Amino acid sequence: MAKDEVQEELKQLKADLIKVRTEVADLMSALKDQGADKAGEVKRSVEDEIRARREELRELVSKARSGSKKVVDDAVEGLEDRVEQHPVGSILTAFGLGVIFAKFMDSGTRR
Q1: Which of 102, 82, 78, 103 is closest to 91 using CA atoms?
Q2: Number of domains in the chain
């Protein structure tokens, strides 16, 4: 009788073990599917964030380009105003710089 009870308990234990294996396999499959779904969501979220940051960067570069053009335009305009206000001084300055530049160029060829 005790032997039959042990046999019955072993059968029940084997059946329970098979059931647990099946449940663990189902659980692992569900976790895998859920993980893939989460990974897809994270990937989409990261891609959306990258797109948004790229657009911000494009806007910043565009603003920087237009800003640098404005700075150059303002500098040229300021130079034109100075030349108009002091035409003789501007001519003398340009002549002096030309003489200095010519001396540098000439001293390199004469030896």
Answers
A1: 82
A2: 1
